[in-house]
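Revision sheet: structure tokens.
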Amino acid sequence: MQAWRVHRNGEPSEVMRLEETDRPTPGDGQVLVEVLAANINFPDALLCRGQYQVRPPLPFTPGVEICGRVADGRRVLATPALPNGGFAEYVVADEAALLPAPETLDDAEAAALHIGYQTGWFGLHRRAHLRAGETLLVHAAAGGVGSAAVQLGKAAGATVIGVVGGPEKAETATALGCDLVIDRHGEDIVAAVKEATDGRGADVVYDPVGGDAYAKSVKCIAFEGRVVVVGFASGVIPAPALNHALVKNYSIVGLHWGLYNTKDPTAVRGCHDELTRLAAQGAIKPLISERVELAGAAAAVQRVADGTSTGRIVVLPSGAAR
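Predicted:
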């Protein structure tokens, strides 16, 4: 089969190589899955760089979530077992962790429903306890993780303020349903949030960026606000001033979705049922900006790494992109 493999760490476009290799062999409790679509996530770039919290042995295939088909014909969502990731024609995955692909979504949309939307749902509902009528501030609102949070926030009845970088991404965030879009390249985030909330600030901040995004967020956080720390796409990990959190009476909560797979898998399945219901209602739908064939995966991962993409880029089998 064909698979993208990384033999040394570095930038995705430089270290990913498309090769012929053997199909992976399922171990105990695993199943072979034919890849129908593989969604690109920022962690795929971090894996290539050797900067992710999981460092598979070299060589490995990136690709942390897929929509695929198992031997009995079922269409499923899976997180492939590294080092045999999803940018390949076949993967192996833990059978117990397979989830049914929602019938209302095509292969590319289904592949993008899993990690980003699960992260958003757990972050907003389990960690931040977002309530209808509250104001949600989402950083990188036009990106893969941010766009999911925007849709989930609107589905929960929140007023959503999206922060983006540039006019094209502002248009995307508006189309996603943001009530207000702030272009960080030319607008003052703190002033805009305070003006939009009559000085109260944001009740919940969803931050997959870190760095300056976090610093601005805590300057416009509401009384009893909650900052959900999702990731550090900026490359800068903030050092929170806990005295500031004390004086302004807000909470800083971390969200590591992967832990739920091992600590509370029942909650993961319950979340998937809720996401499937919301997708069937049309309340959420992954924003697929590009569908690329397997041969274009390395360049696409690099675009995600560089932060130039909007929504989700999904890798499809050769001849399937449209």
